[in-house]
Design goal:
The chain is built from seven helices and five strands; from the N terminus they run αβαβαααβαβαβ. By secondary structure, the protein is an alpha/beta fold. The chain folds into two domains: 111 residues, 3-Layer(aba) Sandwich (Hypothetical Protein Ychn, Chain: A); 40 residues, no CATH class. It has a five-stranded parallel sheet with strand order 4-3-2-1-5.
Length: 162
């Protein structure tokens, strides 16, 4: 493959769709976005369905680890439904991330946004959950339909759904 062909295939833009509010999925999206920006790759983050919690002012600082039904927790499912397990698991995970210098969600979003990434909310999900623009984090770039988000696709883009 020639250098010219490789240049045409180079990754130029990551379009990351975050549909969940569990911190495991949220951090996956934020880490991918931050990593892309640090490599000079353009980033569009699109928050839909429960992922809207990440950019909703009242919820963004209160995201949790889902314990019930989460096979990644490596514990019997019945344990995950006990009162307080979700808070305990969230506390433990956040403590480990703090040791690794991974910032809290709000701060991580600030860092990603400062690196010139774009942040969008899903219009349909906002309507479903009766959210208004003023309910969102002030640095959200726009509220888009899925079609408007897809129209931001350019050659060299990759879409990831979390």
């Amino acid at each position: 493959m020639s250098e010219h062909d490789q240049g045409e295939l180079a990754l130029k833009k990551m379009m990351i769709i975050v549909s969940k509010a569990g911190i495991d999925g949220v951090y996956a999206g934020l880490i991918l976005a931050n990593g892309a920006r640090s490599e000079g790759i353009e980033v569009d983050l699109f928050f839909t369905f429960f992922g809207l919690d990440v950019i909703t002012k009242k919820r963004m600082d209160y995201l949790k680890v889902a314990t019930a039904g989460n096979t990644g927790m490596h514990m019997p499912e019945v344990v995950g439904v006990f009162p307080g397990m979700e808070n305990l698991a969230t506390h433990m995970m956040m403590k480990e991330m703090e040791k690794l210098d991974v910032p809290p969600v709000h701060e991580f979003l600030d860092i990603i946004k400062a690196s010139d990434a774009k942040v969008f909310a899903c219009k349909l999900a906002m309507e479903m959950f009766h959210l208004k623009r003023e309910d969102l984090w002030e640095d959200v770039d726009d509220v888009l339909s899925v079609g408007q988000f897809y129209n931001r696709f350019t050659p060299g883009s990759q879409i990831i759904f979390i």
